[in-house]
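If your schedule permits, I should be very grateful for your opinion on a structural question. I have a record of one protein: its chain in single-letter code and its fold written as discrete structure tokens. Kindly check, if you would, that the fold set down in the tokens agrees with what the sequence suggests. I remain grateful for any guidance, and I place the record below:

***
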Amino acid sequence: MPSAIVYGGRGALGAAVVGWFKQQAWRVISIDLVTNPNADGSVVVSAADQGLPEQGARVAQDVEALLDGSKVDAVLCLAGGWQGGNAASSGFLGSADQSIKQSVNTSLIAAAIAARHMSPGGLLVLTGAVPALEGGTPGMIGYGMAKAAVHHLVASLALPGSGLDGSRVAGLLPQILDTPANRNAMPSADFSAWTPLATVAETLFKWASCPGACESGRLYKVVTKDSVTTIE
């Protein structure tokens, strides 16, 4: 049975991806702050593990116990969150720190898990952001910086000598996802420009299932217009 690990498996997108892969008869392990009851196994990240080495070691230990020597075909890091703020904002350093923890640290841990537990030819996906491709992000400096670091990590991991030789590494760059939380926060927005979660889940499944479906080292922008989504 093919298998996948979804980091952020209890968030809106992560839960949709877990559900879709399960429907396709994959075994799925979720990593998140809380258990995903629909996954075959869950690793719960402890708030007490403040540092990256401590958190990474704890997650790695729990993943290894669940896998019990087996390999996975995909590691999908969908964890993250948006934080705004410029250098003059009162919460600037805190929001930047949160962005690093949610985007950079989770991506690094996912990469370490993939290097240790993924089958040859497997797929690692990390989540970036379109604004981080476009130069500076003055109104969300910490977020943009963190996502730019994720983009660099994708490029590095796809190169020989990265520890993931023979595997595929891709960046997923969604814009606005169509989630209940986003609809509640922006009820007057143009929902036809928002990407359905199912579309992303189906795309990731295609990438994980078909070796030639995505190019290693590439950052894929997810663009939705007039309710039509393109992955480019």
